[in-house]
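User: I'm writing a short methods note and want a consistent example. For Putative ABC transporter ATP-binding protein, I'll paste the sequence; you return only the structure tokens, no commentary, since I'll be parsing the reply automatically.
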Amino acid sequence: MSLVIQDLGKRYGDTPVFSNVSLTVAPGEFVAIVGESGVGKSSLLNCMAALDDWQDGSISLDGTDLGRLNETQRAHWRREALGFVFQAFHVLPHLDVAQNVGLPLLLLQRPDPARVAQVLEAVGLAGLGERLPAQLSGGQLQRVAIARALVHKPRLILADEPTGNLDPSTAAQVMDLLQAQTRENGASLILVTHSEHAAARADRTLHLTAQGLAPGV
Ligand SMILES: Nc1ncnc2c1ncn2[C@@H]1O[C@H](COP(=O)(O)OP(=O)(O)OP(=O)(O)O)[C@@H](O)[C@H]1O
Ligand SMILES: [Mg+2]
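Assistant:
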């Protein structure tokens, strides 16, 4: 998926977060975004996912102006094309692991237990499909969130600190998986991270400040 962001500005009430954020991401490209805590990285991803509004500028996805879509159209687009790994996981507590991971397929009316088992195995959670989220470690929960973001082969993957709770070897495996998914499906991957190892894998690393996105770390 191609993504074009032009001069994006975000405020919460009167409090500015960032302005003049511009970014073009090509299909299949992997871009890492780094920046200090509180600078607005999660807010920026939420805007790209049309989960939050922005005050200035525009976001366009494969030529469609995201700002012009109504809520129903935004929800439809998210369901079809987006995989989002939330910083806080947002795993549903009353659904077991396999149900959480299978949810995007269910919403698309394409339930596929074999695909669910495949991604669970890929994130190292084979055999844990029937556990409830409360019975998992933080790193296992993070991998559930990653499996859920990839299960429907989205064209745009937004991942907010997806390796923050993982040991170095599991983190490397998860990054391998995110990158493989990006390559296989011609998806674009935008990764917010504090990890130098994760950022070093990207095609480009951009630094978010209140004034915009600049190259470099
Ligand atoms: N819903 C909200 N209402 C008001 N202010 C908010 C809201 N969400 C975030 N903020 C503020 O906006 C700023 C950016 O927050 P955001 O979560 O995007 O930062 P971040 O770069 O992702 O930080 P971290 O690296 O700690 O995850 C922060 O100052 C935060 O307190
Ligand atoms: Mg954040």
